[in-house]
Each structure stands twice: as structure tokens, then as C-alpha cells.
Amino acid sequence: MVHAPHPAPGGPTGQSHAPVMVLFDIDGTLLHTTGAGVRALKRMFATEFDCPDPFDGYSFSGRTDPGILRDAFQRLYGRGPTSEETSRALGSYLRFLEDDLATCDVKVLPGVGPLLERLAADGIPTGLATGNVEEGARLKLSAGGILHYFRFGGFGSDAEHRGELTRTGIARGRALAGPVPDHSVFIVGDSPLDVSAARYAGVRCLAVMTGWTPREEMEAAGPDLLLDDLSDLPTVMRFLVPG
Ligand SMILES: [Mg+2]
Q1: What is the distance in A from the centroid of ligand 1 to the CA of 32?
Q2: CATH number at residue 192
Q3: Which residues are in the CB-under-5-Å shell of ion ligand 1?
Q4: Letter string b/e over residues 140-156, b meaning 16 or more CB atoms within 10 A of that residue's CB
């Protein structure tokens, strides 16, 4: 679990509002690792399994780490990974990821910093709903300098199914923040799979165009709000905390 000190509800700005909770996807929503995650996966397959790139033409957007592993094993061997292969693959992936993130250029996306500051200042519980395994999430957010904003989350290490890990993240947020109603829980993501995960969990979705999905596909997914990015702070806050 990602833990960090966080202001209590009704924090420094003294704003009071009905309970709200926000859970963010990472890749394409909060930041771009400029390929570090994919490079680490490819190095892991080459090193641990002595196999060529299994990802030709593969779309990583919105996929969970265990789902990506399963798909790669299906492509390579026509079966899913054993539990031993999964733990070996993830351990190796995380070592390569940490190595790559130490030197690559991690870009925090437009508006993310000010939005996270505002949510913290307003005491709004802020977490993660990400397909990254928890340690991978920690490494990426730490490289972007934004790890300290997140108190809880659902991760690829909790479930292969994105809707299930989203439910887990929401349940952990409620365990910390109390009974936030479904209509005041927001998933922020960049892919149609974030939108469907929010629907699966019965909560709302703010989608952004900072990922890899064409606009018409994002619109067809039917998020509650679709923005180019998170840089229009007043619009984002009006959506999250109406009135
Ligand atoms: Mg994403």
C-alpha cells in the first residue's frame, strides 16, 4: 500500500463539502514514463525467458500487469504463466523498471501537479486505480515526484481484472475516509478500460486525452466527462465537487 501523510478532511483551505474520493490511473493519466515500463518488460522477457519481443502490435493502454503477462505468455507459449513464472517475471520486471526510471525522463502530465495539490489542500482522499503492480506504481510515481499524494489504491497486484482492482481501491479508500457514496467516487483515466472499470465498480469517470486512445474511441466509451488534459483546474474541481 502506498502511504503518505495527508491533511485531514477540511484541510488547509478550510473548504467543506460532501465527501468525495478520487482514484487515478497512472500511465497516460498522471505521467508518461517515456517507454520505461515497456522497455523493462521486453528486457525481462529477453533475460528471464530468452525470448524475443512478444509485444509486436500489442496495446498496453489500460491493461493490468498480470493481464499483460498472461497475454505475452499466450503469444509465446499458447498458455498463461505458472505462479513461479509470474513471480520471477514480476521480480525481474521491477528490477529493470527501477534501473530504467533512474535515467529516463518521466513526464508528469499537464495540470496533474496543481490538481493533486488542490485535492490535498481540500482534504479530498486521493488514491490509485492502476494496472501496475503496487511496487511498479510506487517506482513510477516516485520517479515523477508525486508519490506522496497517494494514500491508498487498487493495483495490478490485487487483481488481473481492472474492474476488480478498482473496487478494491475504492474499498480501501472508504476504510480510510468513511462512507463516500458511489456517485461521489471518481476514477480518472486515459483509456476505455478505465471507463469500463469505473462502470463495473458503479462509480463515475473523468477521462483525459493524454494517453494513447483516439478521441472517437474515448467518446464511444462514454466517460462522464472527457477533457484534453487536467490543466483546467476550475473545470475539473467543478466536476468533482459541484456547487
Ligand atoms: Mg492509463
Answers
A1: 9
A2: 3.40.50.1000
A3: 25, 27-28, 190
A4: bbebbebbebbbbbbbb
> C-alpha cell of 86?
509470474
Determine the distance separating the centroid of ligand 1 and the alpha carbon of 15, expressed in angstroms: 30
132 and 69 within one domain: no
For each of the chain's 243 residues, which pLDDT tens digit applies? Answer: 455 444 444 444 445 567 999 999 999 999 999 999 999 999 999 999 988 888 989 999 999 999 999 999 999 999 999 999 999 999 999 999 999 999 999 999 999 999 999 999 999 999 999 999 999 999 999 999 999 999 999 999 999 999 999 999 999 999 999 999 999 999 999 999 999 999 999 999 999 999 999 999 999 999 999 999 999 999 999 999 987
How do strand 31-32 and strand 107-108 relate by DSSP bridges?
Answer: antiparallel
Dist. CA 192–CA 120, nearest whole Å: 27
**How remote is the CA of residue 27 from the centroid of ligand 1, in Å?**
4
**CA 25 / ligand 1 centre spacing (Å):** 5
What is the extent of the structural domain holding 42?
36-101
Centre of ligand 1 from the C-alpha of residue 60, in Å: 8
Examine the domain organization and report whether 83 and 189 are in the same domain. no
Distance CA(81)–CA(85), nearest Å, equals 6
Q: Are residues 140 and 228 in the same domain?
A: yes
Q: Which of 48, 73, 101 lies at the terminal end of a domain, its last residue?
A: 101
The rounded Å distance from CA 208 to ligand 1 centre is: 10
Q: Are residues 27 and 147 in the same domain?
A: yes
Q: What cell was used for 228?
A: 484534453
